[in-house]
Design a protein that fits this description.
The structure is a homodimer. The first copy, chain A, is of the alpha/beta class. Chain A folds into 2 domains: 150 residues, NAD(P)-binding Rossmann-like Domain (Rossmann fold), CATH 3.40.50; 92 residues, ProC-like, C-terminal domain (N-(1-d-carboxylethyl)-l-norvaline Dehydrogenase, domain 2, Orthogonal Bundle), CATH 1.10.1040. Chain A is 42% helix and 15% strand. The radius of gyration of chain A is 22 Å and the shape is elongated. At the A-B interface, helix 5, helix 6, helix 7, helix 8 and helix 9 of A face helix 5, helix 6, helix 7, helix 8 and helix 9 of B.
């Protein structure tokens, strides 16, 4: 059985810990947290430590902290010659301290603490320096998820930019739609089916082929009416810019 | 049993016809199409006509044509004093010819001909001049869908603008994400789970509370890195504008 240390207690760490605990071939050895009180919901009491220098060597160490802290944390690990990975979408593998073998274990999903996630559907993007370390990460990843990918640091960078467009920015468009509905006394739930169907379509059609609406039809009458309707200048500018971009696809 | 005439053979008409045919209390009487050959897949041969003047009176007439043609088509209907509705999200009810009672039967969904839709989940937005006509439309709508709403022309206008943001514009962000992946040899399917989860979240959380990503965290380092990464000027501008908008929420 391989041992795993986790450093961190944010949303990603929380979901990883819960899942590692359920795997037969891996043993959660220690978890480094900033505050035992705050982490009490996620981490078994007897595994928690707050002082990283108390960490005992493990087969795999997962650093799941804010991007800015990854380097310092990897420097502070009190052992060497084992596999140490981070879980960040934006941070290069190279930033990790060279006293241990480097790797990345990036779960590409939007995590909220109170929202249950079926980890089997979470794509895990792996990167290592050696083939042997990749094997170790793959065994772990394949026990946790049906979707395991080898992704280089360069690819991961593009994937993260992409993810901002298709998730963070998409959610902001939901915010705008919600606001327009609220201002006009229309329940936002009227739009729920449309939102689900728009997302479901892309698993069957390339998004380019799924495009509908006034912009792709070059329906200037509707476009003008919509722009006149919008009173928020920022939303009007977003409307104009995306409409132009759709027309030029 | 109530009789229904349908005018049109586009995506919405296609889905309506298929569904009306399956209802026990309604009978599809005639369908006006532009070309019998093109409509052959959607419409039973014996019900098709191409000349609107051959249309016989029905309890309900559904005009499902492009927005610009609705007025002319409603003028050309060769009978009066029955209920005539259109299916448009952008067109006012008032545009219909006054020789018949006016109404709107707007299915708020993104339809593609080759994509099966479970009509039970399609929100139907109804509007009529009289309570009595509303009853007729409601009976039909409730047999087709679990989601029936009374929506005024004013509300419908705001709903349609909202729908452009949460569906058409969202799909364009999928197009951009897809392109970035393709340029960097990353399979777009890595992002499918994230896209589905982002859409699923809004049924449980207000979108404002679901916002994640570098913009809401004011993570300027990542924002700058992403903007430097983008080479397409339009996409870079979309990135900047939506990031600013998220920061100001």
């Amino acid at each position: 059985m391989k041992t795993i240390n986790v450093i961190g207690s944010g949303n990603v760490a929380h979901h990883l810990i819960k899942n590692i605990n359920a795997l037969p071939d891996f043993k959660l050895q220690q978890v480094v947290v900033r505050s035992k009180e705050k982490a009490a919901d996620s981490v078994p009491e007897n595994l928690m430590i707050t002082d990283i220098s108390q960490l005992k060597p493990a087969d795999l160490t997962i650093i799941s902290v804010t991007d800015d802290a990854i380097k310092l944390i990897s420097d502070a690990i009190p052992y060497q010659n084992s596999l140490v990975v981070h879980t960040s979408g934006t941070t290069s593998m190279a930033i990790l301290n060279s006293k241990n073998q480097k790797g990345v274990f990036y779960p590409l999903q939007t995590f909220s603490k109170n929202r249950m996630i079926d980890f089997k559907n979470v794509p895990l993007c792996l990167e290592t320096e050696s083939e042997n370390d990749l094997k170790i990460l793959k065994v772990l990843a394949q026990q946790m998820s049906d979707k395991v990918y080898e992704i280089s640091s360069e690819q991961r960078k593009s994937l993260h930019v992409s993810a901002v467009f298709v998730s963070n920015f998409v959610n902001h468009l939901y915010v705008i739609g919600n606001e327009i509905c609220a201002e006009n006394n229309v329940p936002f739930e009227v739009l729920h089916s449309l939102i689900q169907e728009t997302a479901a379509k892309i698993t069957l059609l390339p998004p380019r082929d799924a495009q509908t609406g006034p912009a792709i039809r070059h329906d200037e009458k509707t476009i003008t009416a919509h722009q006149d309707f919008l009173t928020n200048e920022t939303y009007k500018n977003i409307y104009k810019l995306i409409t132009e971009s759709i027309k030029n696809v």
